């Protein structure tokens, strides 16, 4: 690791109030500044101890500290490189190893996830029993979504009306198998706004989960395959509707050591840039918009989804207090660190509750599942949707 990245930190502590783990536990070593201090010790020769690994594992990778830091510290890069070291040097407990083994041999592989689809209805009921055996397995089962019918997108979705652009579209792994309606809505919205949407069938996982977990070799392999798929498709822009995938793909140059032959844009970022042509039909709804960390902090995309939602007639947008604090979902965090994730989910659900909104919208199904589960735990209910689904309903003039 480049010590300069570490030395950029001037220990000012401006990042501390935005760090979810520091907010939970008030421990310096569970703050960005404390973790950077541990990284420095390691770079100066201290081997990674189980205690150090615990502090690094507890980091959500939410990047709120990157937004807050006035000195431009690249904590995102620092924690990614540190996680690679943790995976190389730290010997995990057998249970932790087993759970990680399940997570990383399952989630980046859409075909394996597909095999789980028929069992999803059972998962929520099994959650209390699994939780007794292992909290991570319990969390995995409790968060299992009710899956919709599989909707296979064609290789090309043609623009409606005059074609204004051609874009590629990433399907994602969890998105493709468990939230196919979000991908279908994304393709329809892009087509209604005048885009030919190219969906290369050979695309797989983008590598986001692996890169965020220090699984360097797996991340590179998956990223290279994704680059090849979209390179063959010949598109200049790849539109992504999952915040974690988008943020990783925007960093392919750092991961692979060369620029990919396309640029990556989040759906809301791309639509805002393209400008509207399709008519917006009214949606009389109160909506709380949740900033997914990998969209707001990692990609700096905050204004565009709010602009898109606010432009829908009769839709009332409400802000969630403490919007910069992570909901605890954070990729696989709610599976690997279920206790902290649960506490953060409860905190976020309470904040969402103060808005009185009837619909919770975000650009990341992981976040909405996590918050909806916390709302249910508190005895409430809230409907959830992806930004793409709200736009789709308004553009087509259907109810949500
Ligand atoms: S990434 Fe999030 S959890 Fe990790 S140190 Fe930064 S603010 Fe804290
Ligand atoms: S990471 Fe940035 S904000 Fe946090 S202590 Fe270091 S310099 Fe200050």
From TrEMBL:
Residues 1-29, 50-73 form the 4Fe-4S ferredoxin-type domain. One of its GO terms (molecular function) is glycolate dehydrogenase activity. Its cofactor is [4Fe-4S] cluster. It catalyses: glycolate + A = glyoxylate + AH2; (R)-lactate + A = pyruvate + AH2. Pfam families: CCG, Fer4_8. Binds 2 [4Fe-4S] clusters. It is an enzyme of class 1 (oxidoreductase). It comes from the Bacteria. Its EC number is 1.1.99.14. Keywords: 4Fe-4S, Electron transport, Iron, Iron-sulfur, Metal-binding, Repeat, Transport. PANTHER family: GLYCOLATE OXIDASE IRON-SULFUR SUBUNIT. Component of a complex that catalyzes the oxidation of glycolate to glyoxylate. This is Glycolate oxidase iron-sulfur subunit.
């Amino acid at each position: 690791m480049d010590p300069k990245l570490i030395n950029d930190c001037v220990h000012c502590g401006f990042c501390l109030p935005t760090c979810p783990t520091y907010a939970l536990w008030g421990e310096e070593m569970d703050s960005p500044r404390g973790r950077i201090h541990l990284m420095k010790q390691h770079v100066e020769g201290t081997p990674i101890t189980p205690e150090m690994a615990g502090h690094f594992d507890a980091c959500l990778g939410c990047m709120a500290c990157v937004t807050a830091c006035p000195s431009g510290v690249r904590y995102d890069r620092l924690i990614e490189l540190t996680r690679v070291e943790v995976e190389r040097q730290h010997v995990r407990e057998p249970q932790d190893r087993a759970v990680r083994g399940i997570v990383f041999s399952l989630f980046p592989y859409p075909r394996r996830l597909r095999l789980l689809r028929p069992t999803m209805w059972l998962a929520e009921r099994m959650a209390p029993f699994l939780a007794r055996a292992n909290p991570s397995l319990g969390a995995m089962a409790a968060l299992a979504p009710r899956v919709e019918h599989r909707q296979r997108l064609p290789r090309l979705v043609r623009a409606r009306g005059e074609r204004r652009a051609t874009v590629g579209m990433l399907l994602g792994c969890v998105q493709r198998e468990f939230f196919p309606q979000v991908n279908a809505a994304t393709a329809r919205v892009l087509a209604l706004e005048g885009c030919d949407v190219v969906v290369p069938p050979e695309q797989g996982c983008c590598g986001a989960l692996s890169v965020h977990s220090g699984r360097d070799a797996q991340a590179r392999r998956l990223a290279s395959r994704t680059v090849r798929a979209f390179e063959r498709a010949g598109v200049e822009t790849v539109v992504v509707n999952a915040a974690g995938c988008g943020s990783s793909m925007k960093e392919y140059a750092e991961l692979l050591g060369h620029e990919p032959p396309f640029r990556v844009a989040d759906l809301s970022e791309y639509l805002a840039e393209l400008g509207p042509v399709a008519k917006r039909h009214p949606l009389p709804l109160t909506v709380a918009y949740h900033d997914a960390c990998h969209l707001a902090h990692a990609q700096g995309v905050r204004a565009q989804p709010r602009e898109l939602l606010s432009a829908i007639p009769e839709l009332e947008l409400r802000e969630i207090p403490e919007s910069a604090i992570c909901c605890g979902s954070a990729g696989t965090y709610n599976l690997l660190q279920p206790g902290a994730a649960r506490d953060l989910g409860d905190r976020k659900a309470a904040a969402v509750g103060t808005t009185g909104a009837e619909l919770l919208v975000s650009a990341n199904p992981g976040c909405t599942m996590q918050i909806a589960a916390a709302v249910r735990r508190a005895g409430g209910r809230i409907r959830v949707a992806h930004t793409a689904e709200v736009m789709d309903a308004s553009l087509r003039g259907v109810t949500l």
